[in-house]
Specification:
By secondary structure, the protein is an alpha/beta fold. About 30% of the residues lie in helices and about 20% in strands. The chain contains 15 helices and 17 strands. The strands form 4 sheets. The protein has a 6-stranded mixed β-sheet. A 4-stranded antiparallel β-sheet has the order 2-8-7-4, with no helix packed on it. Helix 1 crosses helix 4 and helix 4 crosses helix 7. The chain is globular and about 60 Å long. The structure holds iron/sulfur cluster (2 copies). One iron/sulfur cluster binds next to helix 11.
């Protein structure tokens, strides 16, 4: 199978961030040591918050289900360690501020480090022996959610829906956020496991077409996946689609446009077009859940930043505190100005470094003052010069300056008329603005105010 990197497919708008150094791109995925304590958040996904199934003082085992709900849109949570429940209490939560978590003190003498299961898969893996129902049940039991950051329960995406039949499965291997490299390493190191997950997802969803979209700044990943597919029978006819390297190429709507050439309507969702999008890490987790019956207790997290001594990609127990990850990677220095969960474009800054890793934490990025442009925003912001650059780069074809202006002047109804809710919060408008206006910041604030009003 040949692949062509010219005339790559993409979407309209977007940016090419300059400081997009992927410091951990050559760092192999390493299992992270078992921490002394984990805090497993009961809210780690889109949908209903889990109810605890354990109480203070209970002993728990690795992989034991410790929280769930009956709600259709939700996902169970499991213990990543053997240990004792120390408390069920509020913890710093990256989105909610504070939220309930099950805090488990680890039994350090009886806690083997979780090993990677990539070697249990090879090119000959076939999804045929599993029924769609078996796969969906295993995914549900394992508590798998979108590991690309959205956190939508995967079982809901895969399960058949007679009203919205599924036709196309797109696997997101873009990882367009600068600095993050976990998905890249999964594509290189866990190739067979990831492809096994893709085959299982195709079987469960009933999709007839499967594409893996990868940005062309990852030629090694493109080559490795194509060669692996060539060695297998590839009865599923999985196609690899090299895409232009551009941010936010990994946004669900932008990926669908780039791969299929179709637009998801404003206010619409991919299932309306018969499309299911899953991230490469999610596919790997599906394979582990179905074949190994292993729940989602660990995930790959990139630790990166110019002030980090040892940038790395760790396979981390969910619930590990961010400060433990940072210390293990060499600690933060006085030049570190901000710690964000995620990448520099869409990541969320945290003030409390005891914030635990959740299922959606793909990276911990440490930024310097220069990188966050602190001086720039504080001192040099000017009035909008109506250059229109924010309109050019907006991947959702919005008018960011008008929306930001409406929010600033407390005219949320006007912001709604300009489709504020369609903003995907990519930050391209802020990045490009020559007047240094935090356009996306105003828009995010407006969305929060609107949500509170309702
Ligand atoms: S308006 Fe929203 S979607 Fe458009 S560039 Fe700004 S942050 Fe991105
Ligand atoms: S990029 Fe900045 S200066 Fe230019 S129109 Fe948008 S908000 Fe105004």
């Amino acid at each position: 199978m040949n692949y062509e990197l010219k005339n790559k497919q993409t979407f309209a708008g977007g940016i090419h961030p300059k400081s997009a150094e992927k410091l951990a791109k050559d760092c192999k995925i390493e299992p992270f040591p078992v921490p002394k304590q984990v805090a497993v958040m009961l809210s780690q996904h889109i949908g209903a918050i889990c109810k605890p199934l354990v109480k203070k003082g209970d002993d728990v085992k690795i992989g034991q289900k410790i929280g769930e709900t009956d709600a259709f849109v939700s996902a169970a949570v499991h213990s990543p360690v053997n240990g004792k429940v120390k408390d069920i209490a509020l913890q710093s939560h990256v989105v909610a501020g504070r939220s309930k978590a099950i805090i488990i003190e680890t039994d350090l003498e009886n806690n083997p480090q979780k090993q990677l299961c990539k070697d249990k898969f090879n090119e000959n893996f076939s999804a045929e022996k599993y029924s769609a129902e078996e796969i969906c049940n295993a995914v549900n039991e394992a508590g798998i959610v979108g590991l690309g950051g959205a956190g939508f329960p995967t079982r809901v995406k895969l399960e058949p829906n007679p009203r919205l039949p599924k036709k196309t499965l797109i696997i997101n291997g873009c990882e367009c956020e600068p600095c993050i490299t976990g998905d890249y390493r999964i594509m290189l190191e866990w190739t067979n496991q990831m492809i096994a997950g893709v085959k299982l997802a195709k079987k469960a969803s009933g999709c007839s077409d499967v594409f893996i979209g990868i940005e062309d700044n990852k030629p090694k990943a493109i080559k490795t996946i194509i060669e692996t597919l060539e060695k297998s029978s590839n009865n599923e006819k999985i196609k690899v689609v090299p895409l232009e390297t551009k941010y936010p190429q990994g946004g669900e709507r932008q990926l669908i446009k780039a791969v299929l050439g179709i637009n998801v309507p404003t206010g619409g969702i991919p299932p309306m077009l018969g499309v299911v999008v899953l991230n490469v890490a999610t596919a790997a987790a599906i394979a582990e859940a179905v074949v190994e019956k292993a729940p989602l207790t660990h995930r790959v997290v990139t630790i990166t930043g110019k002030t980090i001594a040892k940038p790395a990609n760790y396979y981390v127990p969910i619930g590990t505190a961010v400060n433990e990850l940072l210390e293990f990677a060499g600690g933060v220095t006085e030049k570190s100005a901000k710690v964000v969960l995620g990448g520099p474009m869409m990541g969320i800054a945290i003030a409390d470094l005891t914030t635990p890793v959740t299922k959606t934490t793909g990276a911990v990025t440490v930024l310097t003052k220069q990188e966050i442009g602190k001086a720039k925003f504080a001192c040099q912001q000017t009035a909008c010069i109506r250059c229109g650059r924010c309109l050019e780069v907006c991947p959702e074809h919005l008018n960011p300056t008008k929306i930001a202006h409406a929010v600033k002047n407390d005219m949320l109804d006007v912001a709604e008329d300009y489709y504020i809710k369609a903003c995907i919060e990519c930050g391209c408008c802020s990045y490009i603005c020559p007047a240094n206006i935090e356009v996306a910041g105003y828009i995010k604030t407006g969305k929060i105010f609107l949500a509170r009003q309702k």
